Each structure stands twice: as structure tokens, then as C-alpha cells.
Write the C-alpha cells for this entry.
Amino acid sequence: MGRISTYLNSMLFFFFLVTPSLAQSRGDIDSWGSPMWGWGHMMFGGVMMIVFWGGIILLVVLLVRSFGSSKLGDFNASTPATPLDILKERFAKGEIDKTEYDERRKILSD
């Protein structure tokens, strides 16, 4: 959740502190009596739309990742382990030796 809060804080900083200063007009007036905005503000609006939707998509992706399963490809995580799987795990850990493993495996396979 640290990444999400950092992202949200930086977005809030940008929108509430930086954007109002960019929206102020220069007070230039053209011959028709209207403010001269120029082409730069149209480009800024397009860039801001991309930043806005990119931020929304990024926020959704981060939320899904943080609340979703960390093992997306592991479909066996919800199935319980079989006794033979437990026996193999105990043998791999060294809790039982080979003769005990073979005896118990024979009993379980019957």
C-alpha cells in the first residue's frame, strides 16, 4: 500500500498545487479583444487527458495487484495436499529415511 499512497500523494500535489498556476492567463489580448491562448494550451489539455486516464488505469492495476492473489498461475493452491504429497515433503526435508519412506509409500498406494 506504500506505492499507492505515494502515487496518490504525488497526483494530489500535481493537481492541487501545480495545475492552478498553469491555468492563469497572461492577459494578452489579440486584435479581436479575446485572450490569446495559443496552441500550447490545446496540447496541454491533450497531455493532461492522457495523464489522467493513465493515472486511473495505473491506480486500478495497483489496486488489483495489492488485493489479488500473489500466485496467479498456481491453481493447486486451494486444493489440499494428499498424504503421498506430505510423505514426499517429509522425505525431502529429511524427517524420515528411505526405508520408512518406502514402507509408508507402499501402505498408501494399497
